[in-house]
Amino acid sequence: MNIHEYQAKAVLKTFGVPVSRGVAIFKPEEAAAAAKELGGPLWVVKSQIHAGGRGKGKFKEPAAGDKGGVRLAKSVEEVETYAAQMLGNTLVTVQTGPAGKVVHRLYIEEGSDIEKELYLSMLVDRSTSRIAFVVSTEGGMDIEAVAHDTPEKIVSFSIDPATGIMPHHGRTLARALGLKGDLAKQAGELATQLYTAFVAKDMTMLEINPLIVTKDGKLRCLDAKIAFEGNSLYRHPDVVALRDLTEEDEKEIEASKYDLSYVALDGTIGCMVNGAGLAMATMDIIKLYGEEPANFLDVGGGASKEKVTAAFKIITADPNVKGILINIFGGIMKCDVLAEGVIAAVKEVGLNVPLVVRLEGTNVEKGKAIINASGLNVISADDLDDAAQKIVSAVRGK
């Protein structure tokens, strides 16, 4: 689960992390009051969308101006003008794709006197099962470009969960960022604050770009992005309350109601699979035969009739889907039970595109017999390779 920048800063502030003062607004008429509350003389008007590259982004509508999604204002009147231009308009960045995202919220933030821009992020290192810091002196830039062009400027180190954050980690962070004296001390305190927040809130990613050094010698987080572990949200109702459904795909929202792991993609073949690894293999083999998957959809090991029906509705709601491939291993549930669920789902939801079903596991022959005897336009497959070839051929009209 992702949250907006202003929400991320509010979370970090509760752990003592230094952030700039700001006010979130939702209507243009709220802009002047927010600017006056902050006091000026400089304000930064920031579009709040779940995507990076806002500053270099462009609005689709000419009326929104051409200054991007993050703008510096030098008067209350400019803050009002920018708010009126940006709210309700569609911002396109390198991460939104050509469709862009509609800006429903702005963050009016006090300006900062910047001496230096740094980069700091934290993530879960899957190879070591530890939380890792990734830092660079090249803040305010596209970190992917830094990694490609000057990888030596990126330093990473991980934290042993048995010890947690220690003073030497703060010193390592300070050295990597080239900070000395009081700034090094501040870096140590910041490392502890961020690690504490990361663990306490079950984060999976925290990025601060840029982390700035102000002209009066203070560290401050000028931007913040946070992603949370979805499986841990039951422990954090305060985080769940921050969810912005307007930033999420409607099909993904519906899938979450049924505990389905769903990610919308750009292809034409809808996939319904039980197990993440099997789902990845299914998408790979579809691509191998020249087509593209329309989604990642894992119904889980205990796929029930209700889940299958919900998954069907979600897949068929995508107008780009020209065919559906079901690839289920009957382990916890038997294949004949799964087949009955598939048939019931097809009858309830309807089917206007080719459907190929591959079942494997307990009672697989019974499952195939149920599908073949259903009288519906359902194609049975013997294995994954056979299933992939059949759905690709069907989508291509062969």
Structure description:
The protein has 398 residues and is an alpha+beta fold. It folds into three domains: 21-110, Dna Ligase, domain 1 (2-Layer Sandwich), CATH 3.30.1490.20; 114-239, ATP-grasp fold, B domain (D-amino Acid Aminotransferase, Chain A, domain 1, 2-Layer Sandwich); 250-395, Succinyl-CoA synthetase domains (Rossmann fold, 3-Layer(aba) Sandwich). Helix content is 35%, strand content 25%. It contains 13 helices and 19 strands. It has helices at residues 5-13, 31-38, 76-86, 143-149, 167-177, 182-200, 237-240, 250-257, 276-288, 305-316, 335-349, 364-372, 384-395, and strands at residues 22-25, 43-47, 58-59, 70-73, 90-92, 101-102, 106-110, 114-125, 130-136, 154-159, 203-214, 219-221, 225-228, 261-264, 269-273, 295-298, 323-330, 355-361, 378-381. A hairpin with an 8-residue loop joins strand 5 (90-92) and strand 6. The model has no long low-confidence stretch (mean pLDDT 91).
